[in-house]
């Protein structure tokens, strides 16, 4: 049988292959270990004591999810539809706002959400007129196919400023484009057609001019 020294040298080893020191731990090493264990126990939190809670009403301190961000002003490129909800509940003027609140177009900081928390119908105009801020109202209804919801800012019971409009067409929710965007799109489309018409006219004029020049050259040689 070979010696253990020869066997160890033939085997592949990783890490430190030789001890740093052949001497055992000293009394200072044991003392240092005790100090580290003591400091680690002091740094660990007491699991029996719950962590301090912040002020009520803040979901970040209460352990709940953070509130969703307000929707953007231009979300005309997306639509929302929940077929499971549509198969379960009727889409009418009483439940349409609950369906709209599931979409990414809904602003959770609106006054309608405060009414929902108080178990009041979110479209109750008698309560909305007593509040100020962002609100949604149902402006046009053609049950069960078309619902138009307007987002506006209320400054007083009589003064409101329209902001955006959304429409629910056969269960699909869209953001209506703003008037300036509609004008810009129409003007851009008109300019495109005018430019195309001028291009076609110029090409035809070039063909007519080329034909007259060729005809005059043939007469000259005759």
Automatic annotation (TrEMBL):
<keyword id="KW-0805">Transcription regulation</keyword>
<feature type="compositionally biased region" description="Pro residues">
    <location>
        <begin position="48"/>
        <end position="70"/>
    </location>
</feature>
<feature type="compositionally biased region" description="Basic and acidic residues">
    <location>
        <begin position="31"/>
        <end position="40"/>
    </location>
</feature>
<dbReference type="GO" id="GO:0016592">
    <property type="term" value="C:mediator complex"/>
</dbReference>
<comment type="similarity">
    <text>Belongs to the Mediator complex subunit 6 family.</text>
</comment>
<protein>
    <recommendedName>
        <fullName>Mediator of RNA polymerase II transcription subunit 6</fullName>
    </recommendedName>
</protein>
<dbReference type="InterPro" id="IPR038566">
    <property type="entry name" value="Mediator_Med6_sf"/>
</dbReference>
<keyword id="KW-0010">Activator</keyword>
<dbReference type="GO" id="GO:0006357">
    <property type="term" value="P:regulation of transcription by RNA polymerase II"/>
</dbReference>
<dbReference type="InterPro" id="IPR007018">
    <property type="entry name" value="Mediator_Med6"/>
</dbReference>
<dbReference type="GO" id="GO:0003712">
    <property type="term" value="F:transcription coregulator activity"/>
</dbReference>
<comment type="subunit">
    <text>Component of the Mediator complex.</text>
</comment>
<comment type="function">
    <text>Component of the Mediator complex, a coactivator involved in the regulated transcription of nearly all RNA polymerase II-dependent genes. Mediator functions as a bridge to convey information from gene-specific regulatory proteins to the basal RNA polymerase II transcription machinery. Mediator is recruited to promoters by direct interactions with regulatory proteins and serves as a scaffold for the assembly of a functional preinitiation complex with RNA polymerase II and the general transcription factors.</text>
</comment>
<feature type="region of interest" description="Disordered">
    <location>
        <begin position="31"/>
        <end position="70"/>
    </location>
</feature>
<dbReference type="Pfam" id="PF04934">
    <property type="entry name" value="Med6"/>
</dbReference>
<keyword id="KW-0539">Nucleus</keyword>
<keyword id="KW-0804">Transcription</keyword>
